[in-house]
């Protein structure tokens, strides 16, 4: 496995693979890798001849009061996991390599202009998806993969990337991979590391709310508001939890829905202490 810090090194490596007729998968990450990322790598290694993992904490997707500086980093551990998973190349650029204007700033962004990025997480993180689309576009242009792999835990991000790929004709297959959970239900996330023991216990209210919502729908509840209100009541019963949003939306457009039907996404963001966690489920009928 190679580690590249520059765009030129990645391009040279991928060019050599292409000359041999090999296919390339990309797993974009911000590092501090866990089993959720491992499942993306596994899928890529199975589907593609070569797998590139990018490890880059992208400044343009963090707002001014968010956790850019504090975001957990452990490149040695990330490297070991990538090696174990059969990854061929890690792209680990510094901020100036990705944003040559310096200080993680750019004047060129990729942004979806309709309401899709303004819903759900976009309400409290107004520049987040512009930063995600910009860095993912750059990674696509650098690696030129056949397939790229994203987790369904970030369901809004996945829908936005699919839309961007369609609108900008990237010609890359976007593969969504299921949420990976701890044994007790908590969705795996790099941010789980911020939780102390008491908060870790409290954080279970997210996955419990997911189970409750799924059960209500399986039992025939078709009123999205009733499902959402029951989930909110469960979360509000946890003293350390503060809801950012719990919402039922169309899984493609992220527009709010009243009726539960196939492909509705029920998504939430909840603060446990200072840590903002997300979780969701999609309605399959
Ligand atoms: O999901 C993430 O970790 C990030 O948003 C991504 C896609 C790597 C872009 O920085």
What this model shows, in words?
Helix 6 (128-143) packs across helix 7 (155-167) and helix 9 runs antiparallel to helix 10 (224-236). The chain is an alpha/beta fold and 285 residues long. Helix 3 links the parallel strand 3 and strand 4 (89-91). 38% of the residues lie in helices and 19% in strands. The chain is built from 10 helices and 9 strands. The model has no long low-confidence stretch (mean pLDDT 98). The strands form 2 sheets. The protein has a 6-stranded parallel beta sheet, sandwiched between helices. A 3-stranded antiparallel beta sheet has the order 7-8-9. Residues 28-30, 58, 61, 132, 135-136, 154, 157 line the site of pantoate (PAF).
Note the topology.
Blueprint: E1 2-4, H1 7-19, E2 24-29, H2 35-47, E3 50-55, H3 75-85, E4 89-91, H4 95-98, H5 121-124, H6 128-143, E5 147-151, H7 155-167, E6 173-177, H8 197-202, H9 204-218, H10 224-236, E7 241-250, E8 264-272, E9 275-282
Parallel strand pairs: 1-4, 2-3, 2-5, 3-4, 5-6
Antiparallel strand pairs: 7-8, 8-9
Helix pairs in contact: 6-7, 9-10
Pantoate (PAF) binds at residues 28-30, 58, 61, 132, 135-136, 154, 157.
Task: Put the structure in a nutshell.
With 285 residues, this protein is an alpha/beta fold. It is 38% helix and 19% strand. The mean pLDDT is 98.
């Amino acid at each position: 496995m190679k580690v590249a810090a520059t765009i030129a090194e990645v391009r040279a490596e991928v060019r050599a693979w292409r000359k041999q007729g090999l296919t390339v998968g990309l797993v974009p990450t911000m590092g501090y890798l866990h089993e959720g990322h491992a499942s993306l790598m596994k899928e890529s290694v199975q589907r593609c001849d070569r797998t590139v993992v990018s490890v880059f904490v992208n400044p343009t997707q963090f707002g001014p009061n968010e956790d850019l500086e504090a975001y957990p980093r452990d490149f040695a551990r990330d490297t070991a996991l990538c090696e174990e998973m059969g990854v061929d190349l890690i792209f680990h650029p510094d901020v100036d390599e990705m944003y040559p204007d310096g200080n993680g700033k750019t004047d060129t962004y990729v942004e979806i202009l309709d309401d899709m990025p303004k819903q759900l997480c976009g309400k409290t993180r107004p520049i987040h998806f512009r930063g995600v689309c910009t860095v993912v576009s750059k990674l696509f242009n650098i690696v030129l993969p056949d397939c790229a792999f994203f987790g369904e835990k970030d369901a809004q991000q996945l829908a936005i990337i699919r839309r961007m790929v369609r609108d900008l004709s990237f010609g890359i297959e976007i593969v969504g991979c299921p949420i990976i959970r701890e044994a007790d239900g908590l969705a795996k996330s790099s941010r789980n590391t911020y939780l102390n023991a008491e908060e870790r216990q409290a954080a279970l209210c997210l996955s419990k709310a997911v189970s409750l919502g799924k059960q209500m729908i399986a039992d025939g509840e078709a009123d999205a508001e009733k499902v959402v209100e029951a989930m909110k009541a469960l979360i509000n019963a946890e003293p350390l939890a503060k809801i950012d949003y719990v919402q039922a939306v169309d899984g493609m457009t992220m527009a709010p829905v009243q009726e539960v039907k196939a492909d509705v996404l029920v998504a939430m963001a909840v603060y446990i202490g200072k840590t903002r966690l997300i979780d969701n489920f999609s309605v399959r009928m």
